[in-house]
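Pipeline run #58 for the internal structure catalog. This entry was flagged by the ingest filter as a single-chain record with no existing model, so it goes straight to prediction. Upstream metadata was stripped on purpose; only the residue string is passed forward. Reviewer on rotation: M.T. Logging verbosity set to normal.
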Amino acid sequence: MRLEVRLFRPLILPLLATLPLAGATPVGSWSVASAPDLQAVIDQATAPMNFLTRPIARSRLRNTNVVFRRIQVARTGAEVTITFDDRQPMRMPLDGTPVAWTREDGEKMTMAARLDGDDLEQTFTAHDGQRVNHFHLDPATRTLSFQVTVRSGRLPGPVAYTVDYRPAPTSE
């Protein structure tokens, strides 16, 4: 019997290393820890545009890209609910099925969510572009990286930035 255990032990350790860590999904309440200078990110992304379209693009990007102080992520079965600051919660299935959504400014679009391993990906699609929010929790540091990528045919390239969050204190 000991011989069998020794034979299988080398196989078990690599197998365990490939399993996802428990609690590595971004479910919970998160407070901003560090954020880039979004104005600088927007200015750099729009710098190649001509002087007529650049201010319009910068204004629109400033209005739709803010650093959220708090993010809440909840999962119930096959659905996820994401709430940014005090905004309305966004509920969507985790299978990538798009659902209709209207932003606070009245713009209509679809949003969808899916799990990519332990990471959560939320995608907004509007008539003029797409935004992907990628949530990744580092289980070692308990840091939630919120990676945003905005793409549009009207932009010279993607606008991308990352905001890091830490677990929110329960008193917030």
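catalog note: The domain at 24-167 is CATH 2.40.128.20 (Lipocalin).
catalog note: The first helix runs from residue 2 to 18.
status: ready for reviewer M.T.
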